[in-house]
Amino acid sequence: MSIFEGIWVPIVTPFRRQEVDLNAIQKLAEDLYKSGVNGIVVCGTTGEAAMLDEGEKAQILAAIQEVVPSTFPLAMGIQGSDTRSTAEKLTKLENFGQPPAAYLISAPTYVKPSQEGIRLHFEAMCAATKLPIIIYNVPSRTGVNIEFETVKALSQYGQHEQILAIKECNGKLEQTARLIKQTKLQVLCGDDVSLFDFLSIGGHGAISAAAHLRPDLFSHLRHLIIAGETSAAVLLFNQMLPMIRLLFCEPNPAPIKAALSLLGYLQEECRLPMTPMSKVGKQFLARELEVFMAIKKPEITPAKVSYAYHPALLH
Question: Which residue in the list 136, 257, 265, 282 is annotated as catalytic?
Answer without folding.
Answer: 136
